[in-house]
Each structure stands twice: as structure tokens, then as C-alpha cells.
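Lab notebook: predicted structure, single chain.

Context: the supervisor wants predicted structures on file for every construct in the current expression panel, including those that have not yet been purified. This is the next one on the list. No modifications to the sequence; it matches the entry in the shared construct table.
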Amino acid sequence: MGSKSAHAHVITRSHETLLKHRLCCFVDLVLAMVFLSFFLCLLLMAVSENDAAERIQVFVIPHSHMDVGWVYTVQESMHAYASNVYSSVVEELSRVKSRKFIAVEQEFFRLWWVNVATDWHQKQVRQLLNEGRLEFIIGGQVMHDEAVTDVDDAILQLSEGHGFLYETFGVRPRFGWHVDPFGASATTPVLFALAGFDAHLISRIDYDLKDDMQKNKKLQFVWRGSPSLKEKQEIFTHTMDQFSYCTPSHLPFSNRSGFYWNGVALFPDPPKDGIYPNMSLPVTKETVELYAQTMVDNIKQRAQWFRTSHVLWPWGCDKQFFNASVQFMNMDVLMNYINTHSDKYGVAVQYATLQDYFQTVHQTNLSWDVRGNQDFLPYSTEPFQAWTGFYGSRNVLKGVARRASSLLYAAESLFTRYRISYPDGPVQREWALDKLKALRWAVSEVQHHDGITGTESPKVADMYMEHLMQGMMGAEELLAAIFLLPQTLEPSNDIHHTPLTRSTRVKSDSGNVLEQHIIVYNPLAWNISTYINISVAYALAVVLDDDGKAVPAQIQQSMESSTVYDLFFVVELGGLQYRKYIVQFPQSHCDTGSACGATHVARVVKFTKKNVSQWKRTGRKLLPVLNECYKLMFDQETNLLHSITDRCEKMRVRVQQDFWEYEANGDVHSGPISDNYIFTANGSAIPAYKSVAMEIVAGKVVSEIRQYFYREEEDKNHTYSVVTRVPVGFEGGLACFRLEQSYKVGPLEMNRETVFRTCTSLKNNRTLFTDNNGYQMMKRTYKTFVNNTIARNYYPMVRAAYIQDDSSRVVFLGERAHGVASLSQGQLEVMLHRRLWNNQEWNLGYNLTLNDSSVVRPVLWMMLGSPSALSSIYQQEALELQHRPVVMPIDQPQKPWNQGEKFSGPFVQPVVVPQNLHMQTLSIPGWNYSPDHTQHLHSLNSGGERKSEIDFDRILLRITHLYEEGEDPVLSQPTVINLKEVMRGIGEVTKVQERSLTGTWNISDLQRWSWKTNESVRKEERIDFFSGTTQDFSVTIYPKEIRTFFIYFK
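Prediction complete. Output recorded below exactly as produced.
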């Protein structure tokens, strides 16, 4: 997306100053008429040379920033320019040996490699990679966003790209290049270190912080992103200066952009005559010296901001190098001219890859400052440009992206189980892998920094949604095939998979019964006890498990429709286990003394609608709703929540929840605006309602409080609603501690940004805790700014956010990303939806105004208790929300199956890891490379284009430790598990090999660069990664480690 801040907004003061300075210098140098000006210029040059004290070595890094989405769809971009980038770059690098190029996002490259590249192109790519002149940077499917992506999805998209690159070329990226994500998370450098990277590069950080870092030469540092992993997973990080990743485009001698000789990409079709808009003046005898002076001035300015005499000079920008011939042809001449006059200019320039630059900096052997686990969020480009709006933009897309990720997680582990147990089963393995690959691609693609952020145009949002929905349909087909197709007669592991032969039907009290069969799968490697909810068309139902026993259930009128009922029932499932349930619908009277007695028929009690203008003495008429963990009190004067009591710890907290709105400005001539990216609070939020109605459903599985908020007193239809579900009967279980809140928000009025605000009696001093990508929690202290204080105190919440004081903590967990803030004492607000329009020319031109008229239905789980009690469970609760049981009805209500028709299948043994560990990945990647690097390279070199067989026996397993050091006295301890024992429920493990995060390195082969720091001297021999596994497959996992293995079964 990168050029937004340059084209869309007022140029920052520092940029204005720069442009004026460069224009003046040019006039002075050309005219050379005013002695004083000439003297000052000489003085500036002398100071610059003294600072450098040596010739500046310039690394010109050719690149093209290629957004996988944003304004144009992937298909449109491939046609208009992306294919031409790779074709023409490969051709031009092959012509001249000194030329180099870095390739970043893999999606476009993979599409080009498979669909466009000729045999010659493919051969040349391999040659250029061997020569080190073409370098893959990051290597992920996309350049993922860092604020609203979940850690699992960031790892997935990185693994997808790395797997392709290693399988196809035997190369493994070593450097990050996160030049465009809107702020930088402390999780990303940890992931890149775990993947084997030697250095990382970022760009978009707060404008005032970047100014300060430039002045003090602090743009480079060693980043220890995890407070638990510390120096084990540190990484050298380079922050780009104020010019970011684009070549400075202003030329004092031309009204065209500079250094972009191929011009600007044209959509929808490339011009037939090859003449593009805004092509830079060619480098000729007349212009070469002017170009050289402009480039050298910029190089020297940049050199002042770094500690070494090496300058990284990115040459490129968005959608560049679609005509690499004209680009290199001009730059070759310019660089040759500068080098010929190197003594005059004091610089030497060369084409370079990122490895060339970082290797040179590493060899200086300087000591670097250490940055701890602070992130660079939120991000602002100016006082009124806080890029915190995108945390809540396109809430529907954010929800679907995470739901698709969760479905993929379930389908991967289920297919892995099936493949190990039934290698010759009827579910064709290549067909299954294709279904999984399609969903992997879609989930990876949407992690792009203009994808899940919600900052793309409507047609691109539609593209992401289409790819996600198609992928999800394919995964559901795979699940249905696994569940429904008959298994082989002789399963390979018959000890663990004994087919059930007993019938699971029970006789009903009435012969007139309909039945529906449902399979429920728990994708987590923990035993769970929870409830699920399905919609049914009948007022009475009985639920039987696979032992034929009636399970506790509850049925009630749905709030959505008078002809639909909500059926809740309790499910108890082992880790990675699925069970079969029969739902019976008696069509006549059912005796409560029979199985029907297990189902509670809950009644809806309606309360009088209350107008805010008529509220009088609140807090006097309180109505309790209880479960074994909490007592919620609702105020009948307001129909709002009044307080929550933690019944275990006898602790009461005042709590009120309601909807508020920020009114955004849409006229750029009237003041700062909000848009896809930016949140600018045009004053404080105002209550979004004038009347509240309430219904309460007292249940035996779940009690439900339904609150309806009306914009005006006389409105017949509500604008907002929230349903709070209080689980009942789960004493001692995790489900007892969660209060599920489902919201219905929209369509909004134009230029409204809606928040759900929770006001409590906690004394948190406006301090908030939010997660970095679901991996670690960050403390967010309230800051006051001259302008835009509200927006600059918003932070992304991916899985969790909480406020606390000495005695109490209130936690919110989410199944999609939101923006959150604590703007007053004891307050936490979550931005749920945004609808915006503005008349800014740039936004209108690209259709980026976020006129989102959708209805959004996010879910949050709220928890309350002491900090110590909640710190031991919220991580597990967050994952149970993200990966709720997969519910698959396999038929419609119909007459009962005959006694001979068995609703059975393999008995599935549970797979369980300890509470402080999480099985993050269990999948069959389908890679065909040898895990032995030497053997794989030999195969590539000798076989050429020959493809080896897909390895269906290699299982990718990731296990992560959920806790920080010192977070919990018990759960923060290192944990020893035996992988053979843990996986026994699936089969017999015969071989384990530990790998890097994305699987491409054998851990024993991986040696990352060590960078000297200004902190206490460490041992020369340090452990970069982990201690590996023992001969009996035991492994010790330390706090916050993510361990990756290839495992093989008998």
C-alpha cells in the first residue's frame, strides 16, 4: 500500500523542509552567484564528510513493492504489471552481471512461475539464485500485517512461502523486509528469528519517534521481542529512515518523479506503445550530472542518520520494474557516472541484495543497543493521522478470515488422524490435500497488510471473501468425506481404532419421532466440557450421545425468528476427538420422566422498555442471574448490567455496558478525517441509544440476557443488541468462567464508529493490556498528546485485552481483531464497526472510503476475577474461543434409521497436552523435499525439473508454551512431554526431527548471525535454538517457546 502517506495526506513538516532545502541547494550550485550561499554549502559538505570520515558505500537495492490486493485484485495486478516485473527483471539481470534484485511477496511470484514463466525464465531464475543476484526476502506468501493478524496465521503464510521456495529452489530466506505494515509488532522479530533470519527491516513507526531515532542514530538495534526468550531469539533490526522504501521522487530539475524511468503502472491494460504515465526524464549527457547530484545529496542526508558509512538506498516503490529494461538502462549509466566521479562525490554505489548490505554492517563488529519487547504500535504519520482505525475496519472480513483459519486448523488435524489410521481409506489423499492447500492459500493471502486490515477497495475485499468462502467449502467437503465415507475393514492401528458395532439409538416414548445426526469435533489437544448451539425447527428435542445416553440440553425460542428454536446441549470431548450425537424431535407429548427429562424447555421473560430520559433512581431494583462462578445483577430501572460478583473469591465489581458512537468528519476542508486506516475522534463518543429493552431466559445449560438498544425512543426496531450467555452447570470447568457476549451492530449511519464500552469500578489508571498477535501481552499506559489523544491511545486486540487493579481483573477475549482503549478510570471500550465516507480526492480515486453498510456479529468472552486466578486460564480460554468445537450435521431431521444402520465409526482416542502447552499445528504439509539439505540440493541439481512424490508420511507438529516466565507459579515452569506418549492416540511415533519454525531447517544445521550488543558480554557459544529431543522422544519446552517437528508414524 506504501505510497498512501505520500499521496494521500499532507506532506510532513520534515518532508517539506527536505524538499525546500534540496531545491535551494540546487539553485545555489547551478547559479553559484551568491558567495554566502556557496560558502554555507561548502560548510555543509565539510561537516558531512567529517561525520562520515570515509567514503560512503551505497547499496542500491532494486525492488518492487507488490501489494497482494489493496486497490486492485490479484488477477488485475498480474495482468497489468506483476507478470511483467518478473519476466523483465529476469531478462535484464541475465543481460548484465552486476545487476541485482530482491523479490518479496511470494503469491505473485508463484503465479508467475506456474502460469507465465517459460522454461528459459525458470532456468535463469535458478542461475540468478545460485549467483546471489536474485534474492528472496521474507519469503512469505504475503508481507503480513503486524497489528491484527493472529500468530498462527502469520506462521502459516510464512510456512506456505518458505515451503514453496525450499522445495523449488532449495533456498531459505534470511532477512525480513516489513517496509509497509502499519506499525511493528514485537512478535514478528521473534517469528523471524525462529524461522532462521539473520536480520530484520521495518519502516512504518511513529513519525515523532522516527525523527528522534534519526537525530540520535538509533535506527538500528538488536530487538529481543520476547521477554521470556530474550537473547535466544533476538534479531538485528534496521529501521528505514523518513524516505522509507521508495526512492525520493522529487527532482529539482523536473516536474516528473525521479528514478522511475518506467513510469507508473497502468490499469487495466499495459499500454500497447510501452509509454506509461510519469516516466522520469532519461539519463543523458544533459541530465546525468543533475541526477547524480540529486542522488548523492539524498545519500549524504541519509548517511548522517546511521552509525556506519554504509547506506541502504532502496530503488523502487509500489508497482515498479514492470519494464526493468528502461529502469536498469538508465540507472547503469547514472551509477557508472557517480563511481567515475567518486572522489568528487565521496560515495561509491553498487547494486546489492539485502544480504550484501546486512553482511557488510555485521562485519563492522560494532556493538548495538538492545530493544526489549516493546512494539511500535500504534503508528501515526502526523499529529492527526493515527493509523488506529484499521483495527476495526471491515469487521466481517476480519471475522471470516479467522473463522477460515479455525476451520483449516480443524481440517488439518482431522485429515492427519485419518491418513495415519487409514492410509488406504476411501478419502483420496491427493484430493484431500488439494482442498487443504486451497484454504491455506486463501488464509495466507488475506493476512496481507491491506487484506485483513480492511484497508482495501470493495472489489478486493470481495476477492478475499470469495477465496476464503471457496476454501472453506472445500474443507467442509473434506470433513464430510472423512466422517461419512466408510472406513477400510482393517485399520492400520486397530488397537486404537476399534469400530463400534453397538447401535446408539434408544427407543423414544412415542413412535412418532424424527432424528438428526450430528458429529462434533474438538480440534484442540485438551479435554473440553462446553455447550454447543444449533438452530432447529421444533419446540422439543432430546439429545443422545454415542453411548445412547441423554445429555443435558436446553431449548428456547430464538431471538431471530418466531419459527426457529435454539438448542443448546453439553458436549464432553477428549483432545482431537469427535463424537456422534443423535437429536430426536418427538412429534407428540414426551414424558419428562423419560429421556425428555434431560432437556430443559426455557422460557423468555420480557421486561419493560426503558427510556434513558426517564431513568430515576438507578441501582435499587436489581435482578440476579447466577451460575456457579458469577452473580450478575441487572438494573430494572435501566435494563443495563449493574455489577458482577466473583462467587469464588467473594469479590464484587460495578460493571455497566452499553454502545457509544464517534461521529467522524467527512469533509477534508472542515478538519481531520477518519478513513479505512485512520481514526480521528471528532470529539468524545456519545451514547448511541435513547432506550433499552431486555429479555432474560433462565436456563439449566445456559442463561441468556438479551438487551436491545434503540437509537430513538419511538423507534420500533433496535439499532444494536447484545446477548450475554451465562453457562450453567459447569462448576470447576473452564466454561464456568466465561460470559459469552454476541453483538449485532449495523447497518450504521454514515460516518459513525461504534464502540461497546464497559465501565467498571476498577482503578486501572487508564492502563490497558493488549496482546501482540495472540502471542504475548503488552502493557499500554495512557498517554496525553497535544492533538488526537483518543485515537493515539487505541491499540489492536487480536485475542485478548484486559484492565486490572491490585485485586481485580476484567478480561475480554475475541474471535476476530478489534481496536480497544481505556480512556477513563476503570473503562475498556472495543470498536466493533465503522462506516465512513469522505471527500478526500485520493480516497475517492481508489474507492477507499469504507462505506461499509454490513451488519456485523462479533463475539467476545468476558471474564472477571483476581489477576492471579485469571492469568492461569485466559490463554487457554482464548484458544477455546478461537477453536470452538466443529459442529457438522450430517443429515436433516428424518425418520429414525433402521436398527441395522449403524451410526458408528472408529473409536477415537484422545490426544492431550498439558494445560500450559498448545498443539499449534498438526498437519500434512505435502512437501516433496528431502529433510536432508544436502540430499535435497543434490536432487534439485541432478533432477532439474523432475518432481518427486509428495510425502504424505511427514507430519508437521508445532507445540507452543503459552506462558511467560514468572507469569504463573506452576504453569510458567518448563514442561517435559514425551511425543511418543502424547501422540499414542493417533499412532506409534517412530521418528522425530526438530526443525526451524517454517520447517525448512534442521535445527542442528541452523546457525544464525550473532550481533554484539551494549549489554553485558555473553558467552561466545550461545544456544540459538533449542535442546532438541531425547532418544525416547522427550522434549522440554520452556516459556513462550514455539517448537516445530517433523514426526513419522509406524
